[in-house]
């Protein structure tokens, strides 16, 4: 893992005053990672994703792609994702695409002053290591269930080559969720809303026509 030299606390206010203001709520960016075979000469260049900022937030979505070579077979080298923000927060989504089940990753997240949110892919199995002086570590219900079942281990040094790794350092709030819950809690698409609305309007129109027919029949019976 890349080592970062922290600034002394006495210089923090001075550096904040000299630097540009923190960029909040920036749009999420996407990155794609291809797996590399063991023994590849270009492992470091093709696998590693490194992002380091000072005052800005990091909002990033990482897509783990399947191997592009038809004859490629696992094991592959773990993709390394290294994120660092000195004063900003970090919001990370790791998505494993179909066919990339054997594409494992090692994620390092360091936020020296702010919060961290991580969305892990479906079928995540591996180790989550959190180093924080704060007790505000929140695992979602699905993540907690996976921990109880032993599918996810916390703060252990025994990591296999066919497992994912997440290493977090943050003094703020840490929130970890799974992609399964994200899909369950998503808002319905616009076309589904339109479809429901049209159905409601159709039903209302139908009952309105029935009511008019009944009123017309009653008027004819009274006057005929």
Question: Overview of this structure, please?
Answer:
22% of the residues are buried. This protein folds into two domains: 9-184, no CATH class; 189-224. The chain has helices spanning 12-18, 43-47, 141-149, 179-184, 190-223, and strands at 29-33, 36-37, 49-53, 58-64, 76-77, 79-85, 90-96, 105-111, 116-120, 126-131, 137-139, 152-154, 164-169, 174-178. It is an alpha/beta fold. It is elongated, with a radius of gyration of 26 Å. This is DUF7330 domain-containing protein. Residues 31-147 form the DUF7330 domain.
Q: N-to-C terminal Cα separation, in Å?
A: 93 Å
Rg measurement, Å = 26 Å
Instruction: State the helix count.
Output: 5
Structural class: alpha/beta
Portion in strands: 25-35%
Query: Whole-number average pLDDT?
Result: 76
Strand order of the largest sheet: 1-4-7-9-14-11
Query: What is the total tally of β strands?
Result: 14
How many structurally independent domains?
Answer: 2
Unreliable residue stretches: 1-23, 41-47, 188-195
Name the shape in a single word. Answer: elongated
Q: Helicity, in percent? A: 25-40%
H/E series: HEEHEEEEEEEEEHEEEHH
- Sheet of most strands: 6 strands, parallel
Pfam families: DUF7330
Domain DUF7330: 31-147
InterPro entries: DUF7330
Protein name: DUF7330 domain-containing protein
């Amino acid at each position: 893992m890349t080592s970062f030299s922290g600034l002394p606390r006495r210089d923090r206010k001075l550096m904040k005053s000299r630097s540009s203001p923190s960029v909040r709520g920036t749009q999420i960016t996407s990155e794609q990672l291809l797996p590399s075979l063991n023994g590849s000469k270009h492992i470091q260049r093709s696998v590693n994703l490194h992002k380091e900022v000072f005052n800005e937030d990091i909002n990033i979505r990482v897509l783990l792609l399947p191997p592009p070579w038809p004859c490629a077979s696992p094991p592959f080298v773990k993709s390394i994702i290294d994120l660092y923000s000195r004063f900003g927060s970090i919001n990370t989504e790791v998505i494993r695409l179909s066919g990339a089940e054997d594409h494992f990753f090692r994620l390092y997240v360091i936020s020296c002053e702010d919060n961290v949110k991580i969305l892990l892919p479906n079928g995540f199995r591996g180790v989550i290591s959190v180093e924080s002086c704060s007790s505000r570590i929140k695992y979602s219900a699905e993540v907690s269930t996976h921990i109880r079942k032993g599918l996810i281990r916390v703060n252990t040094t025994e990591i296999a080559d066919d497992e994912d790794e997440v290493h977090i350092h943050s003094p703020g709030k840490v929130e970890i969720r799974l992609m399964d819950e994200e899909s369950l809690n998503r808002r319905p698409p616009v076309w589904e809303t339109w479809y429901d609305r049209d159905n409601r309007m159709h039903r209302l129109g139908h009952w309105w026509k029935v009511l008019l027919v009944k009123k017309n029949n009653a008027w004819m019976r009274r006057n005929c």
